[in-house]
Amino acid sequence: CTDDLNITPNDDQTVLSEDLFEDEAAYKQVLAGIYANLALTGTDGAGSSNLKNIDAGTSQFGRVLLYTQTLAADQMIWSYENDPGTRELQRNIWTDQNPLLLGMFSRAHLSIALANNFLRETTDDKLNSRNVSESTRSEIVEYRAEARLMRAMAYYYLMDLFGKANFADETTPINAIPEVYERAQLFSFIESELLAIESDLVNPRQNQYGRADKAVGYMVLAKMYLNAEVYIGENRYSDCITQCEKIIAGGYALANNYLHNFMADNNTNSALNEIIFPIVSDGVTTQNFGPTTVMINGSVGSLEVNGAEVGVGAAGWGGALRVRKQFAQLFDGAFANDDRNTLISANRPIDIADISDKDTGYIIQKYSNATSTGGFGVDQTFVDTDFPLFRLADVYLMYAEAHLRGGGGSATTALGYLNALRTRANNPVALTSTDMTLDFILDERSRELHWEAHRRQDLIRYNRFTGGNYNWAWKGNGSSGIALPAHMAVYPIPSASLASNPNLTQNLGY
Amino acid sequence: KVTEKSTDIPLPGVNVVIKGTTTGTSTDFDGEYQIEANSGDILVFSYVGYQSVEIPFTGGATLNVELAEDAAQLDEIVIIGYGTTTKKDATGSVEAITSEDFTKGNIVTAENLLNGRIAGVSINTSGAPGSGSQIRIRGGASINGSNDPLIIIDGLPISNDGVTGSRGVLASINPNDIDSFSVLKDASATAIYGSRASNGVIIIVTKKGKSTFSATYDTQYSFGEVTNTIDVFSGNEYRDLVRSQPINGTTIDESLLGGANTNWQDEIFRNTVSSQHNITMQGALFKVLPARFSFGLVNQEGALRTSEFERRNLSLALNPKFFDDHLKVSLNANLAFEDNRFADAGQIGAAMRYDPTKTVYDPNSPFGGFYQHRDGNQVANGTTNPVAQLLQRTNLGDANRVYGNLNFDYKFHFLPELRAVINLGYDKTEATGLDTRDRLQATTDQDILFKGERRNNSQKRTNELFDGYLNYKKDIDNIGLDLTAGYSYQKFTNEGVNGRNLTDPLSVDDFYTDPDVVLIGFFGRANVTLNDKYALTLTYRRDGTSRFSKDNQWGDFPAAAFAWTISDEDFMKESKVFSNLKLRLGYGITGQQSITEKDIFLNRYRSGRTDSQFQFDNEVIQSLIASEINPDLKWEETATIEMGIDYGLFDNKVSGSLNFFQKNSTDLLFTASVPDGTNFSNSIIQNIGELQIQGLEFSVNTDVINTDDWKVDFNFNATLLDREVKELALGQDVRTGGISGGTGNNIQIHREGEAPNSFYVFKQLYDTNGNPIEGAYADLNGDNVINDNDRYVKENPGANAIFGFQSNIIYKNFDFAFNLRANLGNYVYNNVRSSRAQYELLLDNAVLGNIPTSVLDTNFQRTSDVITSDVYVENASFLRMDNITLGYTFNDISKLLKSVRVWGGVQNVFTITNYSGLDPEVTDNDSDLTLTLGIDNVVYPRPRTVLVGANIKF
After folding, report:
1. What is the ipTM of this complex?
2. Which of A267, B24, B197, B924 is least surrounded by Cβ atoms within 10 Å, i.e. has the fewest?
């Protein structure tokens, strides 16, 4: 009986692909898997991971995005520097061995692999052979567009962070050695994809919460166009304005309260009008060590022990996260009572002379596992708070910036958007058109969008990340900041990824 | 009457012949015989396995004879895969050790009977009661694949996978039931087991039923004491230290200090009392059915408070013969009941860490009267009271195992040279666990604070075997033929549930069922001898495994070996020195398929657990994620070449062997990177790389003195081992060796040209006084930046040389035995110091924490600055005396009572080492020993144990 060697899985959580699609509901579940890759690290709890060589928690998409875009810049400090990779990242001394960079590179590519897989499983041939019903087929048109959108978004982040990526689409076989796309190739691929799927995507705000619609595509395009000079050396600011206008026309509105965007019920409170795309988190069903769980537990102060206020254990993670001086100073003077100022500074020096001294440097209380109605998330570690990857305030600021950079649009409109943010933050100081400068916008972006994984990209666009134009605390591993060499504007390709694809080459300077 | 010399047991079936005639008889069941003889005749008494005796008959009604065992002759039977051979005809590297030679002492689990006895075999057992061991034969053969040898009990290969609720795969077997071990080391001996043979094979044979009646009762009591703990500051020292602040930069709120002097390690460890009882009865049931029955009871306390191990074994062996002995049937049936209470070994670390100025108890504490760092009813972050953690948790595990085999061995009536053997094996373990945390246990987890936690687990493993083979054995003139061919089928299943928290209504059970593992093999062996001097063995096995896809599931494993008994050549026959000299040469290919992944070749999707779902529109959708896939996975292959010499000197008073071997494992089953974006992980198991292991083994056994009063023998063995990674995927390094102190730090590397698991560290710089400078490392690549690229390889955990020495000394009724083991050139990364001995850790979040006093040597401030320094890689060579025993035997006490042996001993007598940690032999507190090779985190201390016991024979 040698046939016994041909086994099939016995576990009820595991299904063979040939059996899976007998149930048409599976298509949506597999689509959900692509989205879930942004929130979960594995299928078996927050400590499980389908990626290896990196701690499960620190391979979460939003977490590594936060590390690469925010921790590596001027807003955030992580106290536990013996957590691998954090020291090198926040002191800008990273190498291609950095596990967090591996996590970012691999996690984003996993999104690509999962999207490609979905596209392969939903070709007309496959659907015909499975006699899929018409109603499911019409839904699958939307699903396929969303899968391509998620793939394009993953390529967008790889383009931004690493300047290149392994290129695989649905025609690339499993386990193939993929070719490599450089920045310009990625730019044109993402652009053409997003334009191609526009008509198949659901209209803005019309899709289910948690799923992407047209506005997410516009958002990725807007960000690409805003940064096009960095990526491909072209001025695309007017295209940026166009995309911003399309989003705004989609019917979004600012949340009533700035902090609603960062609360446990930001999936149901007024933030629902503002958030364009969230990374979902839930204390019961979607537990993860993602950015919101990390920031809420992490920003509980070592002295303040203020966890209960934000709905987690009293001591949280004992002061894991603090802010750097230059960021804290953005809230001096007129911003003391601005809603966006959540700094806690009592009994704390503003300087962090010693990163491991958790009693130095200010802490903040931006994110919270409390709800807008005074309740709390169900779990005291894993928060219910969704991470607002894209939200309307960012669009307003992009519009104003693109306008100032010559992209057209209206100055009055731009000023109106900036003042809308001020008003919403209960900041009494109204802006005038003379206040509206590029430097001001960079600062205002930091005040509005800090700890939302945008900062490194913004500083690079303003030419203040590398070089010595702007030195923040611990930049370049000096307590008051040291200039960075130009090559650090992109990250090195992780050594393991480099070794497994002979077509990949290391970025210059590494 | 004829009796056995050493035991006085009557010997049935002894041939009694008058010399030079055909007149003879044999002894009956009680060893009695009757023969008519004339004075002056010479009576010859002969019996297989015993030295023949010739006695001139001088008249008289009775002639009682004692026969002594013929050691040399007994040794000749060697158990090999699917059969036996004689020592003389053996062509492979096989070493046997029988119950008489077993290591004595506090033996709770079977493998420790072997400890230190056989060259090339190393056994590392944790200090936890009844715990499993890491067994390595010749250093294994793999990196990522299993390095565990194949263990076969009475023909049934057992699974190396553990079960919840049990301490280890051999934990449920009663060592008292074991008759012999046969260790198959080289490929020519193991290849008959094909795909599972690369790491060597240990064949365990249990005791069989006998016709003669005997009964024994064994009992022993042992008293254990933890003799060595990590030095941390005492309460007074700690207060002095804190008051001398700032301490190298750290300032502390002195008001946090308490007034107590608590040695937390003393509080969690205890002196232990353990006992073992074994009753064995053998004899013929209904006068015809040879049977053996045994009952064993072990009760062992762990050195860590609350840790307990109890095992009850029932074993029955029936060995009837039918049709004039043409059909031999043997049945071995075993029941084992293992009852455990597990103690969280993590509390050993907590005890080192806990503030020594605090008391164990606090009458005002809401946490069951135990002191806790707290803020009212909230637990402050930081370590929790280790005594409370132990006493307020009851983690029970019961494993019930039934295993055994039924063997039919039929010698054909028409062709007695041909035998057919069928072996049916069965092994099932059902385990349940109940882990209860007291309602009042301190925790920062608000979900269970003042609710407690209770979880039921259960697991069931089965293992079914069908083997059938034919054996043809015939001598034709001067050619001896021994041919075997057969088929083997084995199937393993595993299922269970990780239970929900019964105190949390939201919690759900997590059921799992592994894919079946099916292994099918066809095998054959030809053993040809010429003139009793030249022996050739050819082996072939074709194996199939369910772990690989249809295209790759079959593998072929051939082997050949040649032996030349030089001492039988005419020019050696007269040698006064060499009584035996045999040259062996062997080559073979074996396989490896034992990986965690059981269905990675299939296109699978996995749905999320209840806490790993996604939400659309705030409604749960069970997301499905494609699983990593490798349809091309296939066998790892190990080619072994072996050259050996077996020698016997001075009438075999000195004997032993010298072996050289080289193992090359190719297509290593290795988890390594795959290109991002074309698989569903960034790293999957694949066939990549090559590992080479070379070694030299030497053993010598001698009877130094063998007189009526004195018997002195010793056994010495030495193994030299060298492991080198020859090739890795695309030449890339692989980081491994996770350590504590930060999340996800690795301290080891697999790199081409280096030993596996080499330590990968920064080179520490020292000041002019020779003290290490904190965080200052050599810029090894000279780029003026100290970063990860400046790490280098410093040594590895593998020992270059392993030695074993044991001796038995018998004087009249006294017996004395001891054994020593030594490892040279094994390095250990002292993770206890690297992650603990820094001043910043005097603060344990917002409370105080203790640190090892070794911080005074380095004055290091911050863990993150120093954790990857090479100062923590230490030479952990050692010499250790495992056991020493002394016994005295009272013989012939009464008609009923044949003998009583009383004995006493000490286990873990001493260890000589320069290693600064607790124990140079590092084990894991979990069962997954391979992951922490050479990394000393917090080890369960091996207690020193004093033993007394008695062995009573009826």
Report:
1. 0.95
2. B24
